[in-house]
Every structure is written in C-alpha cells, then in structure tokens.
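Subject: Interface between my chains keeps coming out wrong

I've been trying for a while to get a sensible model of this assembly. When I model each chain on its own everything looks fine, but I need the whole thing in one frame so I can look at the contacts. Pasting all components below, labels as-is. Any help appreciated, I'm running out of ideas.
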Amino acid sequence: MELDVSSTARDALQDLLDVSPQVEAALVITRDGTLLADSLEGRTAVAQRLAKTAVRLLEEAERARSELGREPVTQCEVATGDGHVFVVSDEARVVLAVTGSEPTVGLVFYDLKTALRAVREAATAQGSPSTNGNGNGKAPLAPNPAGEKN
Amino acid sequence: MARKRRNVATALALTAGSAAAALVIRKRQDRRRPHVGLYFEDGSMVSLPESSPQATRLLEAGREAVATARG
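Reply #2:
Try treating it as a single job with all components included. I did that and got this:
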C-alpha cells in the first residue's frame, strides 16, 4: 500500500520540479524518516542522509517552538546564505526542498503544500493515515512532544 | 525658469531612484542573510536572526541539508 503512496509521491515530486525550477532537490519522507520519494536520481545514500537531516530539522523546529512558547510549527524555512531549505509536513509525511539563495518563498511553500496534498489524498484513498482529528490534514511540523495522538 | 524646474524635477527623480535602488539592494541583502522562518499553526510567522540559539541549531541542520543535496 505504501508502494502506491511512494508512486504518488514520486509523481508529486516530478510535478514540483516541473513547476518550480528554483527547487534543486526535494524529497518526501514519513515523519519517522522513511524515504518515500526523492529527486536525487538514484543517489540513495545521499537521499537517506537528506531524509535524516529533514527529521533533525523537524526536531529542532519543535525544540525552537517549545523554547519560544509558541503554537505548533507547520512550515519552516532555513536560509543559509547560499541556499534555502523548506520543510512542510502533515500528520504523516514531510516534504523537504532545497533551493538556491534567492527563491520566491511563497511560491515554493505553495508548491510544496500542493505536493504534500497530492500524496495525502492518494494515501487517504488507500486508507493510510493522513489526516488529523479535524480532517484538514494540517499538523504540527514536529511530532507532539507529549506523545499524544497527532 | 522652465529649465530650473526641469533641473529640480531631474534632481528629485534621481534622489527617488537612488533611494528605491538602495531599498531594493538592502532587501536583497536581507534575503541572502542567514535566518530561519518558523510558520505557526495560527498563521503567524517568526523570523529568527542568525544569532538566536534556535536559529543557530536550525541553520546547522539547514547547511547540512544544502551541502548534502548539492553533494
């Protein structure tokens, strides 16, 4: 079943790369870091490393949220000076993209959310977990620290 | 008189143009400066400067992601 989700994730990433030339690399992972699809053309080890980094970004975003005493983080943008990293997630999956140093931030987020929605809808059709309690598919970027159901 | 007015208009246009150009350059530099944007569930957003401890950790992971992707 996850195979079909992976297939949809691959299509969603391809669509993302087609409409967003700013994106240099992107991947879709589950929240625990399992790779569903990537744009790294067979460089599996690199994709796995990037997946691990995506999980680390999720954890650091949650830590920052906690320290700032804010509500859950839904999206994150890290501008490093020579590149940008974008992370968007729902309850079950995460999309990460790396762009150059001057991306159109709003557009990239929009395209990532579109990709994530496509994967979520495919998963919903197949009965995989994809939505939270209110059914809108929105979820904190990082897992709930209290271990409650997302 | 007309020439004087034209000179004043030219000077004003040049000043306004320079200010606009400076603003664009400044904005572009700001965009290139390392920072972290966190977007919260309520729709608000916080931009963390590079010097904040939260941004420092996220930037470290972000740099790793960029380096890995460009491998």
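Reply #3:
Confirming on my end. The interface with chain B takes residues 24-25, 40, 43, 46, 49-50, 53-54, 56-57, 60-61, 63-65, 67-68, 70-85, 96, 98, 101-102, 105, 109, 138, 140 of chain A (CB under 8 Å).
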